[in-house]
Amino acid sequence: MRRDMKLTQAQLGKSLVTPVDQATISNWESGKTELTACQLLDIMMLFGQPNFLSFIEQYSPVEERQTA
């Protein structure tokens, strides 16, 4: 979603209610660390995706959707 909106990791981090640095965004995207529920909700609202289930379906990897 970040790339779709043409945001850098730094720009996304600064846009959150509780800002985080670029390295934090990088760690989330690479799977090194996980977001808190509050951070996930913040990102969902920022990207206009308040429906959790449709958000997960839209952005989960294809192989996860096929096994569900």
Automatic annotation (TrEMBL):
It comes from Pseudoalteromonas byunsanensis. This is HTH cro/C1-type domain-containing protein. CDD domains: HTH_XRE. Residues 1-53 form the HTH cro/C1-type domain. InterPro entries: Cro/C1-type_HTH, Lambda_DNA-bd_dom_sf. One of its GO terms (molecular function) is DNA binding.
